[in-house]
Amino acid sequence: MAGARRLKVFSILGILLLSALTFLAWSQSWGTLVLVASPTTDTVLDVPGSVAAPALSALGLAGIALAGALAIAGPLVRIVLGALEVLLGVSVLWSAIGALSDPVGAGASVVTTSTGVAGTTSIRELATVGSESAWPAVSVVLGALMVVAGLVVIVTVRRWPAAGRKYQAVTFEAADGRRSSDAGDFFDDEEDEIDEGGGRTAETDAPTRPDDAAARRDAAVDDWDRLTRGSDPTR
User: Fold this and answer.
1) Most CB atoms closer than 10 Å: which of 26, 76, 159, 222?
2) CA 109 to CA 117: how far, in whole Å?
3) SS3 of 8, please?
4) Which among 61-65, 74-78, 106-110 has the top mean pLDDT?
């Protein structure tokens, strides 16, 4: 049981860490582009990850939410979440490889914002690659690890311990052993038994004690005396 619990914790923490690092990569600089305005004048533009691979922010946040869902999911839902983690990893890989293979195309919007020049051909003639950051390569590794993490979840789903009882629905149990998630089911049964028994109520079913009978008799006499003022109205 301890090994299964550690496997669950490490899997969830691993997905959480990879997703957080993916979101961090989105916020970092992925390199620079150099604008060749003239043979003697160059302008350097920074290309952030939010421009080069804008989808990484949503993918990172989705991975964080997925890690939280894994903590309380059942076996079948874990398989679905594991498949979604694989899909997130593939998406991260796609975004990072695209930016890594074509830095100028990935930073085209930065060039357009700075110069007003649009169009892929025009931007490629105007800009060249300056420096390259390690974050595109890091993102590729993160995407591959996310795919592996999703596969681990799918393969080891049966070895994870069950979710805690605090996440399960409340179950009521009657004295005869019957169980139901709705306490009203038991009260409905009692009402049906009363109706079938000829309109019996809890008050009539309960045994009458002598003290209660005497008290009711004395109360009736007192009421009669108050109404008649101590005289017999039949005379």
Assistant:
1) 26
2) 9
3) helix
4) 61-65
Query: In this structure, how many other beta carbons lie within 10 angstroms of the beta carbon of residue 168?
Result: 12
Q: Kindly give, in sequence order, each residue whose CB lies less than 8 Å from that of residue 93, ignoring residues fewer than 6 positions away.
A: 140, 143, 144, 147
CB 35 within 8 A of CB 127: yes
The reported pTM is 0.65
138 closest CA partner among 84, 91, 92: 92
Domains identified in the chain and CATH numbers: 2-167 (1.20.140), 172-228 (no CATH)
Decide which of 87 and 188 is more confident: 87
Q: 69 or 222: which carries more pLDDT confidence?
A: 69
Please, are residues 29 and 44 in contact by the beta-carbon 8 Å criterion? no
- Angle, helices 55-70 vs 135-155, to 10°: value is 30
User: Dihedral, CA atoms, 87, 89, 94, 98, nearest 10 degrees?
Assistant: 160
